[in-house]
Design brief:
With 203 residues, the chain is of the alpha+beta class. It has helices at residues 14-18, 41-58, 123-136; strands at residues 4-6, 24-29, 32-37, 71-75, 79-81, 84-86, 90-94, 113-117, 141-146, 151-158, 161-169. It is globular.
Amino acid sequence: MTALAARAPMPATYDDLLALPEHLIGEIIDGDLIASPRPAPAHAAATSSVGSALHAPYHRRPGDPNGPGGWWILDEPELHLGRHVLVPDLAGWRRERLPALPETAYFALPPDWVCEVVSPGSVRRDRVQKMRIYGEFGVAWLWLVVPEQQLVEVFERQGDRWLLAGTAVGHEAEARLPPFDAVPLDLARWWDVGDPVGSPASP
């Protein structure tokens, strides 16, 4: 999706973000107000599939018999990281760091894991700006999911830089992607957008 950056003489404020139309996703990155439309269907489908795959086993209390649990896994949480306001596609917090969800509409505690589903219009923002900010604020793990390439890149924060910890491509049926490598993931579900109109249905 393509975002519009509103550059002004003064850095954008949270009031500027709140003034955006409801159909736009607002972020403040390096002082600029970024207004993004809702994602395209393939992007939205991938995001929902990733969230669903992780939510069932991990969004539970530690020790849950249907676990392993121990995480909060949330869609599009609003993160207040210093002067930045970011809205990742998905983010996760270990419950040992975040015992209860905040009462505010945003999170001031940086997540342990972030997932950005990268679209052609968000490449620079996701891979350069947001990736840098996540690292600066101590996010330990970052996934970049690229539906057009059926690609997942897993980055781990080591010191002051991101290291590529692994990749998964295509229709791997039992991909193990840290920090969620205790449960194998079926990537084919992440790219499923159905049969093209007019094509015969799959048996």
